[in-house]
Structure formats: C-alpha cells, structure tokens
Amino acid sequence: MREFLVEITTSVPAGVTERRAAEAVRARELADTGHLARLWRPIGETRSIGVWRADDEAELREKVLGTLPLRPWMSLTVTPLESHPNDPGRV
User: Fold this and answer.
1) If the chain, 91 residues long, is cut into consecutive pieces of 10 residues, what is the mean pLDDT of each piece?
2) CA torsion 74→81→52→33, rounded to 10°?
3) I want to staple 31 with a disulfide (CB 3.0 to 4.6 A). Which of 21, 36, 44, 63 is the partner?
4) Cβ atoms of 52 and 58 closer than 8 Å
5) Cross-strand partners of 5
6) Whole-number mean pLDDT of the chain?
7) pTM of the prediction?
8) Element (H, E) at 8
9) How far separated are the first and last CA of the chain, in Å rounded?
10) In the Cβ-directed half-sphere of 24, how many Cα atoms lie within 13 Å?
11) Rounded distance, CA 84 to CA 16, Å?
12) What pLDDT shows up at residue 14?
C-alpha cells in the first residue's frame, strides 16, 4: 500500500453528535486494516493530519476516506508520499 499525508478540516453542523461516535469506531476499523497509520491534531486547532494507506489515491478517496461517517462535512487535502532516502524508519 502507498502512503498519503491527509489534512482534514471538519465542520459538523450542530445536532450531528451521533456520527462522532460512529467516526471513532470507523477510524479504529481503518487502523485495524492498515489504512490509518497515524493521526494527529495540532494543538489549538480543529483540523487533523494523518498518514493513511491505500493502493492508490482513488481507493483512498472512495473506499477509505469516503467511508468516514463525517465525510460529508470534511474538506481534504491529500498528498501522496514516498520514502526519503534519509528516513530513519525506511526499511
């Protein structure tokens, strides 16, 4: 699977609280299947930044990110990644 840096900004309307719990469940499922590798929230911000995995960007957008319960209220920036020669985690 390829890796992608995904920046997500979510603007959920008031009253959509039940989907937040479903979002946490789905994120756990995507982590368990290897699609969600890491996820951060910058201090003091509501956006998230994550490393996601999929075979290609189309699969990432449709079959991974597209399955998130809060997706209708998300704006996404997707950047394909490749390993840097100096990456200490490179295998």
Assistant:
1) 97 84 96 98 94 98 97 97 90 68
2) 150
3) 36
4) no
5) 51, 79
6) 94
7) 0.91
8) strand 2-10
9) 14
10) 4
11) 40
12) 84
Q: Write the CB contacts of 79 (distance below 8 Å, at least 6 apart in sequence).
A: 4, 5, 6, 7
Q: How far is CA 12 from CA 23, 43, 59, in A?
A: 12, 19, 24
Tens of pLDDT, residue by residue over 63-87, are 999 999 999 999 999 999 999 999 9
Q: What are the distances in angstroms from CA 80 to CA 4, 16, 33, 44, 72?
A: 4, 31, 19, 26, 22
Please give the structure tokens belonging to residue 2.
């390829």
Residues 58, 46: Cα–Cα separation, whole Å:
26
Half-sphere exposure of 73 (CA within 13 A, CB side): 14
Q: How far apart are CA 24 and CA 21, in angstroms?
A: 5
| Structure tokens that stand for 40 in this block | 């951060």
Radius of gyration, alpha carbons of the chain: 14
